[in-house]
Amino acid sequence: MEWRTDCSIIPAISPAIAIDMNGKSNDPRVAWLQDPHAECSPPSNPGGICWRLVLFGPPGAGKGTQAHLLSRRLHACHLSTGELFRSAASYNPCSLTPAMTTALEHMRHGALVPDSTVWAMVRERSGCLHCRGGFLLDGFPRTLAQAEALQVFLEKEQIALSAVVDYELPLDEIILRLGGRRTCEQCNSVFHVIQQPPRTEGLCDHCGGPLIQREDDRPEAIAVRLKVYQQRTAPLVQYYRQLGLLLPVAAAGSPDMICERTVTALEQHRPFAA
Ligand code: ADP
Ligand code: ZN
Asked: Strands (DSSP E) along 35-88, which ranges?
Protein backbone atom coordinates (compact mmCIF):
# COMPACT_ATOMS: atom_id res chain seq x y z
CA MET A 1 0.00 0.00 0.00
CA GLU A 2 1.30 3.43 -0.87
CA TRP A 3 -0.23 6.74 0.05
CA ARG A 4 0.94 10.26 -0.24
CA THR A 5 -1.08 13.27 0.72
CA ASP A 6 0.03 16.75 1.61
CA CYS A 7 -1.62 16.55 5.00
CA SER A 8 0.10 13.33 5.97
CA ILE A 9 3.52 14.92 6.14
CA ILE A 10 3.87 17.03 9.20
CA PRO A 11 6.00 20.14 8.89
CA ALA A 12 6.54 21.04 12.53
CA ILE A 13 9.25 23.60 11.80
CA SER A 14 9.61 25.39 8.46
CA PRO A 15 13.05 26.32 7.09
CA ALA A 16 12.20 29.95 7.92
CA ILE A 17 12.14 29.13 11.62
CA ALA A 18 14.94 30.80 13.48
CA ILE A 19 16.63 29.77 16.70
CA ASP A 20 17.97 32.65 18.79
CA MET A 21 21.21 32.81 20.79
CA ASN A 22 19.58 31.17 23.80
CA GLY A 23 18.45 28.24 21.67
CA LYS A 24 14.82 29.48 21.69
CA SER A 25 12.74 29.16 18.54
CA ASN A 26 10.42 31.77 17.00
CA ASP A 27 7.98 29.05 15.96
CA PRO A 28 5.12 29.19 18.51
CA ARG A 29 4.74 25.40 18.75
CA VAL A 30 8.46 24.76 19.13
CA ALA A 31 8.72 27.58 21.66
CA TRP A 32 5.84 26.03 23.62
CA LEU A 33 7.46 22.58 23.50
CA GLN A 34 10.64 24.12 24.91
CA ASP A 35 9.00 26.27 27.56
CA PRO A 36 5.83 25.41 29.52
CA HIS A 37 5.28 29.14 30.17
CA ALA A 38 5.16 29.96 26.45
CA GLU A 39 1.69 30.41 24.92
CA CYS A 40 0.27 27.43 23.07
CA SER A 41 -1.17 28.24 19.65
CA PRO A 42 -4.23 26.11 18.89
CA PRO A 43 -5.99 26.99 15.61
CA SER A 44 -8.69 29.54 16.42
CA ASN A 45 -12.15 28.10 17.04
CA PRO A 46 -14.85 30.29 15.49
CA GLY A 47 -17.57 29.22 17.91
CA GLY A 48 -17.55 25.54 16.95
CA ILE A 49 -17.94 22.51 19.19
CA CYS A 50 -15.26 22.10 21.82
CA TRP A 51 -13.82 18.56 21.67
CA ARG A 52 -11.82 17.27 24.62
CA LEU A 53 -10.28 14.05 23.43
CA VAL A 54 -7.77 11.41 24.39
CA LEU A 55 -6.19 9.77 21.32
CA PHE A 56 -5.43 6.22 22.31
CA GLY A 57 -3.91 3.20 20.56
CA PRO A 58 -0.73 1.16 20.17
CA PRO A 59 2.56 2.75 19.10
CA GLY A 60 2.54 3.21 15.33
CA ALA A 61 -1.26 3.55 15.12
CA GLY A 62 -0.76 7.10 13.87
CA LYS A 63 -1.94 9.09 16.90
CA GLY A 64 0.54 11.90 16.25
CA THR A 65 -0.43 12.23 12.57
CA GLN A 66 -4.12 12.21 13.45
CA ALA A 67 -3.60 14.70 16.27
CA HIS A 68 -2.00 17.08 13.79
CA LEU A 69 -4.84 16.72 11.25
CA LEU A 70 -7.60 16.80 13.89
CA SER A 71 -6.10 19.80 15.62
CA ARG A 72 -6.59 21.84 12.44
CA ARG A 73 -10.01 20.35 11.75
CA LEU A 74 -11.45 20.65 15.27
CA HIS A 75 -9.40 23.73 16.34
CA ALA A 76 -8.21 21.89 19.42
CA CYS A 77 -4.90 22.20 21.27
CA HIS A 78 -2.50 19.27 20.60
CA LEU A 79 -0.61 18.03 23.63
CA SER A 80 1.80 15.15 22.91
CA THR A 81 3.90 13.81 25.77
CA GLY A 82 6.20 11.95 23.33
CA GLU A 83 6.83 15.20 21.45
CA LEU A 84 7.60 16.99 24.73
CA PHE A 85 10.16 14.32 25.67
CA ARG A 86 11.74 14.34 22.20
CA SER A 87 11.99 18.11 22.40
CA ALA A 88 13.75 17.81 25.79
CA ALA A 89 16.12 15.26 24.25
CA SER A 90 17.45 17.96 21.93
CA TYR A 91 18.51 20.20 24.87
CA ASN A 92 22.02 20.52 26.12
CA PRO A 93 22.40 17.46 28.45
CA CYS A 94 23.78 19.75 31.20
CA SER A 95 20.51 21.67 31.32
CA LEU A 96 18.38 18.57 31.98
CA THR A 97 17.09 17.73 35.46
CA PRO A 98 18.05 14.28 36.81
CA ALA A 99 14.38 13.20 36.41
CA MET A 100 14.41 14.21 32.75
CA THR A 101 17.75 12.48 32.09
CA THR A 102 16.24 9.27 33.52
CA ALA A 103 13.04 9.79 31.51
CA LEU A 104 14.96 10.09 28.24
CA GLU A 105 16.97 6.97 29.03
CA HIS A 106 13.68 5.05 29.44
CA MET A 107 12.38 6.49 26.18
CA ARG A 108 15.47 5.44 24.20
CA HIS A 109 14.90 1.81 25.19
CA GLY A 110 11.18 1.93 24.40
CA ALA A 111 10.16 1.78 28.07
CA LEU A 112 7.64 4.08 29.71
CA VAL A 113 8.79 7.23 31.43
CA PRO A 114 7.96 7.13 35.19
CA ASP A 115 4.44 8.36 35.95
CA SER A 116 5.66 11.13 38.25
CA THR A 117 7.76 12.73 35.49
CA VAL A 118 4.98 12.41 32.92
CA TRP A 119 2.42 13.92 35.27
CA ALA A 120 4.74 16.82 36.18
CA MET A 121 5.17 17.51 32.46
CA VAL A 122 1.41 17.46 31.81
CA ARG A 123 0.70 19.60 34.91
CA GLU A 124 3.13 22.23 33.63
CA ARG A 125 0.95 22.55 30.53
CA SER A 126 -2.41 21.97 32.20
CA GLY A 127 -3.55 25.42 31.04
CA CYS A 128 -4.06 23.72 27.64
CA LEU A 129 -6.81 21.61 29.16
CA HIS A 130 -8.77 24.88 29.38
CA CYS A 131 -8.10 25.90 25.75
CA ARG A 132 -11.27 27.30 24.14
CA GLY A 133 -11.23 24.88 21.21
CA GLY A 134 -10.70 21.86 23.48
CA PHE A 135 -7.68 19.56 23.49
CA LEU A 136 -6.21 16.40 21.98
CA LEU A 137 -4.14 14.33 24.38
CA ASP A 138 -1.71 12.25 22.28
CA GLY A 139 0.27 9.53 24.07
CA PHE A 140 -1.18 10.39 27.47
CA PRO A 141 -2.48 8.73 29.61
CA ARG A 142 -0.56 5.49 29.13
CA THR A 143 -0.97 3.81 32.53
CA LEU A 144 -3.86 3.35 34.92
CA ALA A 145 -2.19 5.69 37.44
CA GLN A 146 -1.91 8.41 34.76
CA ALA A 147 -5.55 7.93 33.73
CA GLU A 148 -6.71 8.20 37.33
CA ALA A 149 -4.59 11.29 37.99
CA LEU A 150 -6.06 12.90 34.87
CA GLN A 151 -9.60 12.01 35.88
CA VAL A 152 -9.17 13.50 39.37
CA PHE A 153 -7.66 16.66 37.88
CA LEU A 154 -10.43 17.06 35.28
CA GLU A 155 -13.16 16.54 37.86
CA LYS A 156 -11.58 19.12 40.14
CA GLU A 157 -11.41 21.60 37.26
CA GLN A 158 -14.93 20.64 36.13
CA ILE A 159 -13.77 19.63 32.67
CA ALA A 160 -15.42 16.64 30.99
CA LEU A 161 -13.72 14.42 28.41
CA SER A 162 -15.80 14.14 25.21
CA ALA A 163 -14.39 10.77 24.11
CA VAL A 164 -11.36 8.50 24.02
CA VAL A 165 -10.62 7.64 20.39
CA ASP A 166 -9.14 4.15 20.29
CA TYR A 167 -7.15 3.64 17.07
CA GLU A 168 -7.13 -0.07 16.25
CA LEU A 169 -4.46 -1.60 14.02
CA PRO A 170 -3.36 -5.26 13.46
CA LEU A 171 0.03 -6.18 14.90
CA ASP A 172 1.70 -6.92 11.53
CA GLU A 173 0.75 -3.46 10.25
CA ILE A 174 2.07 -1.84 13.47
CA ILE A 175 5.45 -3.50 13.03
CA LEU A 176 5.58 -2.53 9.34
CA ARG A 177 4.77 1.12 10.14
CA LEU A 178 7.22 1.50 13.02
CA GLY A 179 10.10 -0.32 11.30
CA GLY A 180 9.85 1.81 8.14
CA ARG A 181 9.18 5.15 9.81
CA ARG A 182 11.75 7.88 9.20
CA THR A 183 11.67 11.28 10.90
CA CYS A 184 13.27 14.55 9.82
CA GLU A 185 15.95 15.48 12.32
CA GLN A 186 15.34 19.17 11.65
CA CYS A 187 11.58 19.60 11.39
CA ASN A 188 10.07 16.34 12.73
CA SER A 189 8.18 15.58 9.49
CA VAL A 190 7.31 11.89 9.29
CA PHE A 191 7.89 9.60 6.27
CA HIS A 192 7.84 5.88 5.60
CA VAL A 193 10.41 4.10 3.42
CA ILE A 194 7.66 2.25 1.47
CA GLN A 195 4.27 3.75 2.27
CA GLN A 196 5.30 7.38 2.12
CA PRO A 197 8.83 7.76 0.73
CA PRO A 198 10.46 11.20 0.45
CA ARG A 199 11.16 12.56 -3.06
CA THR A 200 14.91 12.16 -2.46
CA GLU A 201 15.98 9.16 -0.44
CA GLY A 202 17.14 10.10 3.06
CA LEU A 203 16.15 13.78 2.76
CA CYS A 204 13.12 15.68 4.02
CA ASP A 205 10.74 17.01 1.33
CA HIS A 206 10.06 20.10 3.46
CA CYS A 207 13.39 21.36 4.71
CA GLY A 208 16.01 19.11 3.09
CA GLY A 209 17.08 17.91 6.55
CA PRO A 210 18.39 14.36 7.09
CA LEU A 211 15.80 11.64 7.74
CA ILE A 212 16.68 9.44 10.68
CA GLN A 213 15.21 6.41 12.37
CA ARG A 214 14.01 7.37 15.87
CA GLU A 215 16.03 5.46 18.46
CA ASP A 216 12.83 3.90 19.79
CA ASP A 217 11.85 2.76 16.25
CA ARG A 218 14.77 0.30 16.17
CA PRO A 219 13.71 -3.38 16.33
CA GLU A 220 14.86 -3.96 19.97
CA ALA A 221 12.98 -0.88 21.19
CA ILE A 222 9.87 -1.69 19.12
CA ALA A 223 9.64 -5.08 20.82
CA VAL A 224 9.83 -3.41 24.26
CA ARG A 225 7.20 -0.78 23.33
CA LEU A 226 4.72 -3.39 22.10
CA LYS A 227 5.15 -5.49 25.25
CA VAL A 228 4.78 -2.44 27.48
CA TYR A 229 1.69 -1.40 25.53
CA GLN A 230 0.03 -4.79 26.09
CA GLN A 231 0.91 -4.89 29.79
CA ARG A 232 0.46 -1.31 30.96
CA THR A 233 -1.52 0.67 28.40
CA ALA A 234 -4.05 -1.72 26.81
CA PRO A 235 -5.92 -2.15 30.17
CA LEU A 236 -7.04 1.49 29.81
CA VAL A 237 -9.43 0.35 27.06
CA GLN A 238 -11.54 -1.31 29.75
CA TYR A 239 -11.19 1.71 32.08
CA TYR A 240 -12.54 4.14 29.47
CA ARG A 241 -15.15 1.68 28.20
CA GLN A 242 -16.59 1.57 31.70
CA LEU A 243 -16.71 5.37 31.75
CA GLY A 244 -18.72 5.20 28.48
CA LEU A 245 -16.04 7.20 26.66
CA LEU A 246 -14.41 4.64 24.37
CA LEU A 247 -14.78 5.26 20.64
CA PRO A 248 -13.04 2.59 18.49
CA VAL A 249 -11.77 3.75 15.08
CA ALA A 250 -10.01 1.53 12.50
CA ALA A 251 -6.51 2.95 11.91
CA ALA A 252 -5.79 1.26 8.55
CA GLY A 253 -5.67 3.42 5.42
CA SER A 254 -4.36 6.84 4.50
CA PRO A 255 -4.07 9.57 7.16
CA ASP A 256 -6.82 11.61 5.47
CA MET A 257 -9.17 8.63 5.38
CA ILE A 258 -8.58 7.89 9.06
CA CYS A 259 -9.13 11.55 9.94
CA GLU A 260 -12.44 11.51 8.06
CA ARG A 261 -13.43 8.29 9.82
CA THR A 262 -12.60 9.85 13.19
CA VAL A 263 -14.67 12.98 12.57
CA THR A 264 -17.65 10.85 11.45
CA ALA A 265 -17.35 8.66 14.55
CA LEU A 266 -17.16 11.76 16.78
CA GLU A 267 -20.25 13.28 15.18
CA GLN A 268 -22.18 10.06 15.77
CA HIS A 269 -20.88 9.89 19.35
CA ARG A 270 -21.81 13.51 20.11
CA PRO A 271 -25.23 12.88 21.64
CA PHE A 272 -23.54 10.75 24.27
CA ALA A 273 -20.71 13.19 24.99
CA ALA A 274 -20.84 15.13 28.21
P1 ADP B 1 4.48 6.21 20.09
O2 ADP B 1 3.02 6.40 20.39
O3 ADP B 1 4.76 6.05 18.64
O4 ADP B 1 5.11 5.13 20.92
P5 ADP B 1 5.14 8.70 21.49
O6 ADP B 1 5.75 9.85 20.77
O7 ADP B 1 3.74 8.88 21.97
O8 ADP B 1 5.28 7.51 20.45
O9 ADP B 1 6.04 8.29 22.75
C10 ADP B 1 7.42 8.02 22.63
C11 ADP B 1 7.98 7.57 23.98
O12 ADP B 1 7.86 8.63 24.96
C13 ADP B 1 7.30 6.37 24.63
O14 ADP B 1 7.76 5.12 24.14
C15 ADP B 1 7.69 6.59 26.11
O16 ADP B 1 9.01 6.21 26.36
C17 ADP B 1 7.62 8.11 26.26
N18 ADP B 1 6.27 8.52 26.68
C19 ADP B 1 5.43 9.34 25.99
N20 ADP B 1 4.27 9.52 26.65
C21 ADP B 1 4.37 8.79 27.80
C22 ADP B 1 3.49 8.54 28.90
N23 ADP B 1 2.27 9.09 28.93
N24 ADP B 1 3.91 7.73 29.89
C25 ADP B 1 5.13 7.19 29.87
N26 ADP B 1 6.00 7.36 28.86
C27 ADP B 1 5.65 8.15 27.82
ZN1 ZN C 1 12.37 18.49 7.56
From this structure: 51-56, 77-80
140-162 per-position pLDDT tens digit: 999 999 999 999 999 999 999 99
Query: Residue 77's pLDDT is what?
Result: 94
Tell me the whole-structure pTM to 2 decimals.
0.86
The number of the ligand nearest the C-alpha atom of 188 reads 2
The counts of H helices and E strands in the chain are: 10, 8
Q: How far apart, in whole angstroms, are the C-alpha atoms of residue 229 and residue 172?
A: 15
d(CA 44, CA 76): 8
The one catalytic residue among 52, 63, 86, 182: 63
Give the model confidence (pLDDT) of 245-266 as tens digits: 999 999 999 999 999 999 999 9
Cα(117)–Cα(165) distance, rounded to whole angstroms?
A: 24
Respond yes or no: is residue 199 known to be catalytic.
Answer: no
Mutate to test the pocket of ligand 1, among 112, 173, 178, 217 (most ligand atoms within 8 A of CB): 112
Decide: 34 and 24 in contact? Cβ < 8 Å.
yes
Residue 47 makes CB contacts below 8 A (sequence gap 6+) with none
pLDDT band for position 49 (50/70/90)? confident
> Within 13 A of 252's CA, how many CA atoms are on the CB side?
7
Alpha carbons 259 and 55: distance in angstroms, whole number: 12
Q: Which domains does the chain have, with CATH numbers?
A: 51-269 (3.40.50.300)
Phi, psi of 135 (to 5 degrees): -145, 160
DSSP 56: E
Other CB atoms within 10 Å distance of the CB of residue 166: 22
Q: DSSP assignment of 78-103, as one string?
A: EEEHHHHHHHHHTS-GGGS-HHHHHH
Ligand 1 pocket member 34 (CB < 6 A): no
Strand partners of residue 56: 166
